[in-house]
Amino acid sequence: MLKSNAERKLKHLFDGGDWNVYxxxxxxxxxxxxxxxxxxxxCDNFRAATDHCLEREKRENQSLIFQYGPPSGTFEVRRxxxxxxxxxxxxxxxxxxxxxxxxxxxxxxxxxxxxLDFEGFVFVDEYTFMVALxxxxxxxxxxxxxVKLNDDGVDLRDLxxxxxxxxxxSKKKEFWGIYYTIPTYHNPTGILFSPEVCRGIVQLARxxxxxVVCDDVYNILSYGEKPTRLMSYDVRTDAxxxxxxxxxxxxxxxxxPGVRLGWLELPPRLKPIIDGCGFANSSGxxxxxxxxxxGSLFELKLAQKQIAVAYEAYKERMLATTQVLRxxxxxxxxxxxxTGGYFIWVRIPDQLDCREFLKxxxxxxxxxxxxxxxxxxxxxxxxxFFRLSIAFYPKEKLVDGARRLCNALKDYIVKH
Length: 416
Ligand SMILES: Cc1ncc(COP(=O)(O)O)c(C=O)c1O
Prior knowledge:
about 40% helix; globular; four-stranded antiparallel beta sheet
């Protein structure tokens, strides 16, 4: 155990260790956060929004933005979010269904701590967001159950088999089980769940009464046709509707992770569970001040402008990087070109091990990526995969990196 808390004076999360994006000689193709250039207008935009918000507070609201807020967040802010996303998703997002959070990470933690029996099960895709796995493991009485993932989403047969074996009647919490997933531009695989798979997940959730948590942080970033989000398949007018899906949203990828603002969208039977919990009540809205500023950012149409800037940059980066990979990856490797989001998932031949390939890349080509094993619950499966991200670097750097990576892979395959 460490005996002291050595001060590291980091400026941000990707400023040290394996992740250090300022290491000049190594290209970090793993970083899942917006690059500095994407957020270049934020200081001016947030200054204008802050002035707008605080002037109104002084004039009309007696500075209530500094008070404990309503546990779900103020109506005005939830209305701005619901209006924007109703248009974006072309399906209704109701202000009354929203709870403001400090981002999707907190949103998921909140769901785990309030909705799930602590003796229960969390079903996850066989490769999933690594930090979600770390979080679930902290609830040490929960059991993680990986489920097979296909190119069009979770394998429904395997999900049903796993769920069927584990289900029980919880006497303590609303749910005995949660299926946690990222159905739209999945992390790490980049895939989009098909309508059939989304429909099937909702049917299973209703049949076995488990909760589906959709980590929807990449929904905004569709580079082709806009998909229908999984939550929309849990149709409220269905005779057997119960409310089995929560959408966990965030502004981290488009306004900036440091803003720490997100929202949960919940069906009527579930919202009171969080609204009424001590954590939400004692916090009095998790982020009353920041959400007020972001509300103004939307009112002034600056958020919309900033989201459009981020969207265009990511789209250009994704199209350029995947083009290089399609052209130059060795034929024995597999790539599913994502139609949105941040991530590209590459499969190399089974006899190779990406952990060894990463060492080779770092030593010989100065390229860093994340090995597939980081995304599996046991930390062992996934050695034949690696994940790239298009978020952080400008297009030119990504294209150069992708080209160097393909060359490295060709050399490595010849040598092994
Ligand atoms: C699937 C997924 N969920 C959540 C997060 C983090 O979201 P937030 O910054 O809103 O906590 C990320 C970011 O890497 C992610 O990829």
